[in-house]
Design brief:
- The protein is mainly alpha-helical.
- The chain has a single domain, classed as Glycosyltransferase (Alpha/alpha barrel).
- It contains 19 helices and 7 strands.
- The strands form 3 sheets. Strands 1-2-3 form a 3-stranded antiparallel β-sheet. Strands 4-5 form a two-stranded antiparallel ribbon.
- Strand 6 and strand 7 form a beta hairpin.
- The two termini are 19 Å apart.
- Its EC number is 3.2.1.4.
- One of its GO terms (molecular function) is cellulase activity.
Length: 501
């Protein structure tokens, strides 16, 4: 679409935005439907005593009601990360941060789903608060031994494996998981600042304490607890990225100049000069650059211009035709980063594209500069178009005509790698199903009896092929950190009047 020079920039941007949205394979109502389902998924991942209004996934029941009791702490609640029954602190905290960021940037587009999205955030933060304040100079970061858990195929409501509890401390540090927890609490404090100011204050105060702990006792939790966090959620990127990420969120949430000073003083040693081209529960560098670029684009913090330049590098790496282009796409147009749970990178990239497009649009003449000296530029409209293609692919506009969100569209995976979804529910089968007896359901060719509504799975391979097979967990397992950024992306596209200006 060409916008002539006689049309004002604002009108051109608006017309282009309407053109982008009108070209979608889906309507705003479709996106709104997908948004609702993407939030319902988190209800299926809840651990603890379920609320009375848990009616949208009635096959779930209470679970993990004694978590922490053997260690004289209350660790009931939180989320199971994926298809198993372990509560892993690092992905849970990252999930909570990205859910919060989704609400912060696109909550105004969530309409009647906003309260449900905030409930999803709160289910995470209520647990993270418990984990943070239970013991001085310590943070509880996991409930359940994954090695034992993975030897079983059983419902969360039936768990009979040992619910070991693990923590990081001054003697056994975990700056990565602690800093991510601080980021989650700080981001959530923004979410609740107006609707529940006392809760927001508690979140922020705890975030400050947890960040101080992470920064004072430096070390990776993979070194302290490698036997139970590796290879499941090993911190391959180290902890520097989380420290800068957490400081960035604390700066935004508290507006305290000390965090600006921390970023200015420590940024170069914590990854500010490094380009990275994926964003995940493990590696926060690209997300941090985008987050801090807002400070330059909207708040004119000159020291953050560096982050705008690195954000441009990341964004341009995703754009075909850009001098910086280096991403891989499948023949059907899906961003492809890895063979295991690839859609986690697709949803995070889609979210960052939209968040950055929003920040660019708030800045006069804001564009992403690509190539040496910015010889090529990408507009915010182009970023929205790139994100929409990825979102639409996930929802079913792909060669297989398969929606990779469970319960959305006419065709979606039926054999999800998820214990609770694949086993008969406690309501349909009240009798206990033991650890080993559940494997008959894992290996069954029958569809899952319980629909895990809204779950976004690992997704197809680099040739757009997908095996609807429970045992192929790389493709068929859902995860909270896949859905969390997708909530924000869907919120943006669900708003028919969405504009970036």
């Amino acid at each position: 679409m060409f916008c002539g020079a006689n049309i004002s920039n604002i009108l051109c941007s608006t017309l282009c935005m309407l053109f982008i949205l009108s070209c979608s394979a889906f309507t705003s109502q479709d996106y709104e439907n997908a948004l609702e389902k993407s939030i319902i998924f988190f209800e299926g991942q809840r651990s603890g005593r379920l609320p009375h209004n848990q009616s949208r996934l009635p096959w779930r029941g209470d679970s993990g009601l004694s978590d922490g009791s053997g260690y004289h702490v209350d660790l009931v609640g939180g989320y199971y990360d994926a298809g198993d029954n372990v509560k892993f602190g690092l992905p849970m905290a990252f999930t909570t941060t990205l859910l919060s960021w989704s609400v912060i940037e696109f909550g105004n587009s969530m309409k009647n789903q906003l309260n449900s999205a905030k409930d999803a955030v709160r289910w995470g933060t209520d647990y993270l608060l418990k984990a943070a304040i239970a013991t001085p100079d310590a943070l509880y970061i996991q409930v359940g031994d994954p090695n034992n858990d993975h030897r079983c195929w059983e419902r969360a409501e039936d768990m009979d494996t040992t619910r070991n509890v693990y923590k990081v401390s001054s003697e056994n540090p975990g700056s990565d998981v602690a800093a991510e927890t601080a980021a989650a609490l700080a981001a959530a404090s923004i979410v609740f600042k107006d609707s529940d100011p006392s809760y927001s204050t508690k979140l922020l105060q705890t975030a400050i304490q947890v960040f101080d702990f992470a920064n004072r006792y430096k070390g990776s939790y993979s070194d302290s607890l490698g036997s139970v966090v590796c290879p499941f959620y090993c911190s391959y990127s180290g902890y520097h990225d989380e420290l800068l990420w957490a400081a960035s969120w604390l700066h935004r949430a508290s507006e305290n100049e000390s965090y600006l000073t921390y970023i200015q003083s420590n940024g170069h040693t914590l990854g500010a000069d490094e380009d990275d081209f994926s964003f995940s529960w493990d590696d926060k560098r690209a997300g941090t650059k985008i987050l801090l670029s807002k400070g330059f684009l909207e708040d004119n913090i000159e020291d953050f211009q560096l982050y705008k330049a690195h954000s441009d590098n990341y964004i341009c790496s995703l754009a075909p035709g850009s001098p910086n282009f280096q991403a891989q796409y499948t023949p059907g147009g899906l961003l492809y980063k890895g063979s295991e749970s690839n859609l986690q990178y697709v949803t995070t990239s889609s979210f960052l594209l939209l968040a950055y497009a929003k920040y660019l649009s708030s800045s006069q003449g804001g564009e992403a500069a690509c190539g040496g000296g910015g010889t090529s530029t990408i507009t915010s409209d182009k970023l929205v178009s790139l994100a929409r293609k990825q979102v639409d692919y996930i929802l079913g506009n792909n060669p297989a005509k398969m929606s990779y969100m469970v319960g959305f569209g006419q065709r979606y995976p039926q054999h999800v790698h998820h214990r609770g979804s694949s086993l008969p529910s406690v309501h349909a089968h009240p009798a206990h199903i033991s650890c080993g007896d559940g494997f008959q359901y894992l290996n069954s060719r029958s569809p899952n009896p319980n629909i895990l509504v809204g779950a976004v799975l690992g997704g197809p391979d680099n040739r757009d092929n997908f095996a609807d097979d429970r045992n192929n967990y790389q493709q068929s397992e859902p995860a909270t950190y896949i859905n969390a950024p997708f909530v924000g992306a869907l919120a943006f596209f669900s708003d028919q009047s969405a504009q970036l200006v």
